[in-house]
Design goal:
The chain is an alpha/beta fold and about 325 residues long. The chain folds into two domains: about 200 residues, Medium-chain alcohol dehydrogenases, catalytic domain (Quinone Oxidoreductase, Chain A, domain 1, Alpha-Beta Complex), CATH 3.90.180.10; about 130 residues, 3-Layer(aba) Sandwich (Rossmann fold). About 25% of the residues lie in helices and about 30% in strands. Strands 3, 4, 5, 8, 9, 17 and 18 form a seven-stranded mixed β-sheet that branches. The chain has a seven-stranded mixed β-sheet with strand order 13-12-11-10-14-15-16. Helix 3 packs across helix 8. The chain binds NADP nicotinamide-adenine-dinucleotide phosphate and zinc ion.
Length: about 325
């Protein structure tokens, strides 16, 4: 079958109509008709080849909600007509140490929806059935997609950084990822401080569940939170000063990066050493954590706030992401 898509044909270019053929759905794959697809800042990094491994034509889109249209011969867990979500990951080896301990998102052989194939700015997508997740009914089609990359990334990172309840958690950057981090952290019983460069978002942050919001001016928060933080989650796609956020952490505090600029971190050792603080990074999340995250999103009322666009207006939506004016995630509708 012919898949109608939008693709970037070279670095930093607008996406244009482009099509490709899916001849056979592989035995372990499912073919999904796309209903909605969020625009993650990673799509922008990939279009621009910021990370140096983009392949063109590049069909972006890895926050997909769709309907299973056909299933491969070996697929037993999904049925035609089922509503599913698909995120960044396309497959994993299934037998390495990371896969065997349920950390398949850390697998060396892991492949991505848009890095090793064509993504969701399209009529259809075919992926490994293990990376298609049935969606809880209460999650609406047009706003569930951002959970599959943005949501799982912040949920998994916060869990890995030690999030339970009763902690003081800072979230830097209130975009697609950040607005979901605030919701997960606050709804699961933590005290949340939002750090934003956008004045209007500082006023809106309480609607997302933040207990405090602090403006960033000239790269620095204009004031300190009243008490030291246990975790700071940095979601910013551009370089930010490390020392400033380390300094807001208490003893054993964790500074966790999910935002993915390419410039190396410059880290002073002393603030780590004297307070036993740690710095970590975290990619997406495992299959098991995706299922847990979707259940908790449904149970705790975590809802991506989205602006929707018809797929034909994809370049307008991308432009708004680049200008940082989206509240809080742009979603393309079929
Ligand atoms: P986004 O929706 O564009 O939001 C990023 C936010 O960062 C902006 O809304 C803005 O918030 C803040 N910001 C501060 N300075 C900025 C600058 N110079 N340029 C752009 N934004 C700036 O992005 P996203 O989709 O949340 O993704 C954020 C980052 O996470 C990207 O680097 C993306 O590639 C990465 N990511 C990583 C993973 C992973 O697995 N680790 C998964 C998904 C995405 P304020 O207006 O509040 O300041
Ligand atoms: Zn993403």
């Amino acid at each position: 079958m012919r898949v109608n898509a939008y693709a970037a044909l070279g670095p930093a270019q607008a996406v244009v109509p482009w099509s490709y053929e899916i001849n056979d759905v592989q035995p372990h794959e499912v073919l999904v008709r796309v209903l909605a697809c969020g625009i993650c800042h990673s799509d922008v990094h990939m279009i621009d080849n910021d990370w140096g491994f983009s392949r063109y034509p590049l069909v972006p889109g890895h926050e997909i909600v769709g309907v299973v249209e056909s299933v491969g011969a070996h697929v037993q867990t999904l049925q035609t007509g089922q509503r599913v979500g698909i995120g960044w990951q396309r497959s994993a080896c299934g037998h390495c140490e990371d896969c065997l301990r349920g950390q398949d998102h850390l697998c060396d052989e892991s492949t991505g929806v848009i890095t090793h194939g064509y993504g969701g700015f399209a009529s259809h997508v075919a992926v490994d059935a293990r990376y298609c997740f049935p969606l809880p009914e209460s999650l609406p089609t047009e706003s569930a997609g951002p959970l599959l990359c943005g949501g799982i990334t912040v949920y998994s990172a916060l869990r890995a950084a030690g999030m339970g309840s009763g902690l003081r958690i800072g979230v830097v950057g209130l975009g697609g990822l950040g607005h979901l981090a605030i919701q997960f952290a606050s709804r699961m019983g933590n005290h949340v401080t939002a750090f934003t460069t956008t004045e209007a978002k500082a006023y809106e942050a309480s609607k997302l569940g933040a207990h405090d919001a602090i403006l960033i001016r000239d790269g620095r928060p204009v004031r300190r939170p009243p008490r030291p933080l246990h975790i700071v989650l940095n979601t910013v796609p551009a370089p930010t000063p490390t020392d400033v956020y380390l300094d807001l952490l208490g003893s054993d505090g964790v500074l966790c990066y999910v935002g993915a600029p390419t410039t190396p971190l410059s880290v002073p050792l002393w603030p780590l050493l004297v307070k036993r603080r740690r710095i970590m990074g975290s990619p997406i999340g495992s299959r098991a954590t995706i299922i847990e995250m979707l259940e908790n999103a449904a149970a705790f009322g975590v809802r991506p706030m989205v602006e929707t666009y018809p797929l034909a207006r994809v370049n307008d939506a991308l432009e708004r992401v680049r200008r940082n004016v989206v509240r809080y995630r742009a979603v393309l509708l079929a």
